[in-house]
Structure formats: C-alpha cells, structure tokens
Design goal:
- Two copies of one chain form a homodimer.
- Chain A is α+β, with helices and mostly antiparallel strands.
- Chain A has a single domain, classed as Phosphoribosylformylglycinamidine synthase subunit PurS (Mth169, Chain: A, 2-Layer Sandwich), CATH 3.30.1280.10.
- Chain A contains two helices and three strands; from the N terminus they run E-H-E-H-E.
- In chain A, strands 2-1-3 form a three-stranded antiparallel sheet.
- The radius of gyration of chain A is 16 Å and the shape is elongated.
- Chain A starts with a strand and ends in a 6-residue tail after the last strand.
- Chains A and B meet through strand 1, helix 1, strand 2, helix 2 and strand 3 of A and strand 1, helix 1, strand 2, helix 2 and strand 3 of B.
- Chains A, B: It catalyses: N(2)-formyl-N(1)-(5-phospho-beta-D-ribosyl)glycinamide + L-glutamine + ATP + H2O = 2-formamido-N(1)-(5-O-phospho-beta-D-ribosyl)acetamidine + L-glutamate + ADP + phosphate + H(+).
- Chains A, B: Keywords: ATP-binding, Cytoplasm, Ligase, Nucleotide-binding, Purine biosynthesis.
C-alpha cells in the first residue's frame, strides 16, 4: 500500500482569478509582502499496489484520466511513500 | 523573494465527500487498486521578504488568518525556496 501526494495546478500561462482574489484579501489583512498567489488542488491517493512503480503508474493514470485537465492544468507527484509513513 | 508551497486538507477525522466521489470515479475507470482519495487545496505563495524565516512567518499568518479553516482543516508548508528555483 502506497500513498501519493499530487499537486494539480493551472498552467503558469493561464490566469488564476482565485489566486488574485486570495492575494487581494491577504493584502487587505495587512500582508503586503505577498507578491502573488496561485491555487490548485492537492490530492492524497492511497493505492494498493505491490511496488512503488506500479503505484506510480496508477496515480499517473488517475491524473491523466480524471484529476488533471490536460488542456489547462499540470500535475506533479510530490511524494510517493509506503502508506504507514504518512500523517495526512 | 521566496516561494512557498502549502497543502491545506481536511482533518483526517472529517469525512471528505469529494474524495469519496473521486475514488468512486477512479474505480469506474478501472483503477480498482485505489483504496482512498482525500482532496484539498494546494497554494503557491510568492512573498517578498528578506529571509526565509520572515517569509515563513508571513505564509503561516496567511494560513492562520485566511487559507486554512482552523476548525476543520490542517495546513502544511511543503516547501519554501528562493523564488527563482520554482517551476510551477
């Protein structure tokens, strides 16, 4: 059993209105040093596969087919660890 | 200038209906080895501060005051690096 942490974010070339809104709100709260904010999705996937390679293949397939929009988003597997080690 | 990557997720004790829906969809797509899915928010924050400590303080303040709901969510700073090094 493995746990993967995946980041799915808009391509840098694509405007992120939600990020702009968050940045504006942080400035309103006095955090003027915040230059930019970009938001996305964080996904934790637990996969019952025998090897890390097999687990990664399933996670990539999940991203390609469902989790990430291939036209507007990029994804990155931030971590892939044996399931027992994750606290999240 | 520093870039922080932040994960904001529901507390493990809290039901994640969105995660359940994603898991169900992945099973429908033939990825039966997916045991569980938990979703959250990924935030990239660029902060114009002179030191990593100052940048981290701003990011923690942003999480405490806006990005993470203190009642239902946990947050974690996954990375804090000089801004030039990030690709995202």
């Amino acid at each position: 059993m493995f746990t993967a942490h995946v980041r799915v974010t808009l391509r840098p070339s694509i405007l992120d209105p939600q990020g702009k809104a968050v940045q504006h709100a942080l400035h309103e709260l006095g955090m003027g040093s915040v230059e930019s904010v970009r938001t996305g999705t964080f996904v934790e996937v637990r996969v019952d596969e025998p090897t890390p390679e097999a687990a990664e293949a399933v996670v990539r397939q999940a991203c390609d087919r469902l989790l990430a929009n291939p036209v507007t988003e990029d994804y990155e597997i931030l971590a892939l660890v044996p399931a027992e080690e994750t606290a999240a």
